[in-house]
């Protein structure tokens, strides 16, 4: 910690701050300038709240000199985290696409969606059985029946499955069906849930909270990592700003920033980032161009009748076209994307 | 819902939108202007996602004509909600002050804080036993032992108690000790928790999420209300903006806005709103001047050694002085504040 | 400046940073910890861009240890700036109220407004002759004819006058009529204009830009102060956030923050802060309770027919009632507000 | 305009609103539902402030049904605006790259930068002679001497020139040297300046204000268009949000949104959007992938010693590598980028 004293701080005030720091177990280096005194505190006290010093008399500013997270930082682990979910490698050279409907609604709907996204080159199927909805009057998901439908469809198409867990009490049942746990934006700081997922044996994808700083997001990852689960994926999905022309502001710069600060893989969710079907493709292309390790996209064969998020779900033909565009972009940054797409029918043009 | 078609939308596009609305169970009124056609949709479909219509061809904009919440709205209930917690009336003419430490740390600390806030005129004791901390390495609270300390101190001083519940699994134990459940800002959209608190027999205070719109906040209240629990208190505690000079931006205008939209009582938390001890008093005075029904304030007898939030906790003498200032301000808007403060000792001046 | 090196930074990287600092004229103190090296740079280079160091290899973070402004800071001048505009003292014990219509529209309208605000206790008349409007098709003000109307009405009621200057080219003509120059939020970083107002012989009120940090705002004041004009007033008028229930978010905490960082007087504009007539009174009361040195409020005798900002203009009777409430609140913080209001007729009820 | 009355609004309140609308010259269609009455107002009154109706008794919400801008909208002009600056086509199939130093500092620096960006494939040279700096103590530019250096270097390399105009008073001198006028983010709502540029005979590039909505930005374009100058370019350069890990949040979604709402070309400024050299390339790639018509990038041959914005200026070798990446990405969306780069020496590695 570095404590910058105010200009004109008295010797008594400086000694009081030094005493506080020493009491906390720090070694203190004092640097006296013409105008200001600066105190460098080194040693223990890693997680001390800097505001406690800020309110002392004569203190101008306090600066932490280490990130509050450790296991998630690139300082701790220089090399990118890469892991496998069955035959799918996360964090490697290939950009991995996860796609599927917002919610599982019926067997037919789930099956059709799985077939469509497989055909276009997705490797992981996404879909929700428990839905966090801001209104108590909205569709809340099919529960375990939905999980069964999602699993069956994934198996039928040889896709891995990712689905959302909203609460501690759902971990056990979801664990029976899923390959990857998804923590939604609203639960990014549900620490009880995160702590428990630190003991799970499967990867955890953590969406960024709608107004979470990148630092807070990495601290949430730290909750899972510190429990012993090293397979964490971060997912940018848009932040809340003053702009109302889009539902959220997709924070494209979070991708290179996370790559710099952390070794964890980062994927992007352009569906929530944009909030409208016609904005999903440009955001998806931008995310890959900026260096994302993967994408998670909502696709529905009949989005106009979807029970949730229909407006931001792509038609299969749109998704197919997008995948073709991504295959051109990925090599620009030395990546590939699903090199051998399975072309049984053909949706797009 | 009102659907505004784009200038130059074709008759076919208009008919397509009409068909969609009729399919959803709406009656449609069509208004054809020189430049644009406007469709008014009345009837059912209260909770339909307007974005589904926005992505149809030829549609310029879709406007909801009713709020997405119902029980929380002043349209539904014109008179202010007023209820009693023992002998303390919430939402009445008196401005109610809740005060106490961030966390229960020890018996001596809890007792001293309770005595101090009682003396100054607080009616409800606040303190946490389960703490949501953004870092997994921070102090996480004393758990049930903390609840016991808080209850005993409240009883000793004849104060009511409010304490935070972070998760579904904590409701049962907390219910044994508390008078009011507090839902923290990070849990404002923990819908599983809110739904369960709708069945609780005690009031629920819901803090505004750090980036929640007022509409989303009222929808969270709706989750509790729709479960049958009518005793909901809203609590403004600052929102996240670009300004970094303060920890949060205390949204003072939320107070009159909520008073207009809803019948629920609203209190303010200037401690979190300001984030620094020296900013708490001005924010508290401003909140009462703007019409808040109460305040919730962190007070600690030795804040420099508090295990959490010490920087924003007031010294008892500061709190005492603040209460004196508030007693002058409240009458300006026809309110009172703790008319007969118990003056056994006397802290500040 | 304090430069925090990354954990594991090489000796070569550290030496490179030291060399840069020395080249810039700094004295460098080096502090080597177990995990990190911290470099303290003292001396010249006050206005050096810290980002230049941040992009050097091995640098983790760079922290300025002095504010970028000087003349505006409380470090530079401990006592509050207090000055007189004729018989009106700005920054003293009395809370000064400036009020009047958004724009001058006609002689009758200006005269009626001036009489109404004088009667209620305002000391300074406000009104615009040159209007910055976001649409090129909106009413743009009466120009010099408007200035004449405003001056005449001020003289008739023995009020001082404040009016907005939008551009360098308007300074000369406005100087003939006004007592205080007002710089609008959109011009807060029009540095050409600010620099010129540094040579004006009259006070300058600078509104905070809609997304300006408090630091940037004080830097704008610095432009005027560094030109030799010491009579600067700051004006909080709301910032842009994600919340859409109000036009702007009135940043009430800016008042105590500015009081701490600077010696300059600060007033509040609750009309723009709220954007709606029915929200102006609570925001005005809150601003005084938080310690504002004054208020600037839009009042119009027929706001429904105002040519600009009618929705946020108060009726005279509302303004009168507000002034009565403020007279109760001000003493809570040791202030007064227009002790002897002139009561010739009587509006409120 | 559509006026949604509150539930339970009285007949008298409804008639009062109808009377207001008729007085403003609207035709009113009334739609009476079981719960609410909705009034559709068609006809004149395009630029009426909707808030004036919102404050009437019994009104719940007022919705504009037309954009406040006209000439800038795609409704007004369906086809993309495409125009030539000499032999450089803006808004066509080719993605145009503008590059150069932040400020002109010396002849050698300007010449070297021009040669470097030309070699890599830029078509337009950028550089400032008048600099808007938030601190009055920072380097403010070379003035006309800087303009001369920029023009000479552009001519020597057969590049077009874009440079910033900060104030009305600078238009005349800048017009002697530049090919395109640049309006900076801080001046986006300097309406006096914009109005005058509406009479200029050269294209105007308008950067988005740091907290401007897309609607406000298009209204600023409207100021120029309504003066008769049809050659307007929009430039996204990042918005201000709560995130502090980057200087600004580059709003990548603004690109497809502007493409939908307007016919004007849009370019991106990843240097200001990112604020750090190492984030510029990913943001530039993302912008092209999202559909930008061009880029404007800061390049400096010795950025560590640049007098302004050095931290965000690319080295020539970085810029060269970026151009190579962009040539791969552009075809993914049917665009090209500088097909025949001049390779005399070779920078990249």
Description:
The structure is a homotetramer of 349-residue chains. Chain A has 349 residues and is an alpha/beta fold. In chain A, 32% of the residues lie in helices and 18% in strands. Chain A contains 11 helices and 14 strands. The first copy, chain A, has helices at 11-23, 51-54, 107-120, 144-157, 171-175, 191-197, 214-225, 254-261, 270-274, 277-290, 316-329; strands at residues 2-5, 26-32, 37-43, 59-63, 83-85, 88-90, 96-100, 124-126, 160-164, 180-183, 204-207, 232-236, 266-268, 294-298. In chain A, the strands form 3 sheets. The first copy, chain A, has an 8-stranded parallel β-barrel with strand order 7-8-9-10-11-12-13-14, surrounded by 5 helices. A 4-stranded antiparallel beta sheet of chain A has the order 2-3-1-4. In chain A, helix 5 links the parallel strand 9 (160-164) and strand 10 (180-183). In chain A, helix 3 runs parallel beside helix 4 (144-157), helix 3 (107-120) packs parallel to helix 11 (316-329) and helix 10 (277-290) packs parallel to helix 11 (316-329). The longest helix of chain A is centred in the first third of the chain and has 14 residues, at 107-120. The model of chain A is unreliable at 344-349 (pLDDT under 50). The interface between A and B is large, with 49 and 49 residues.
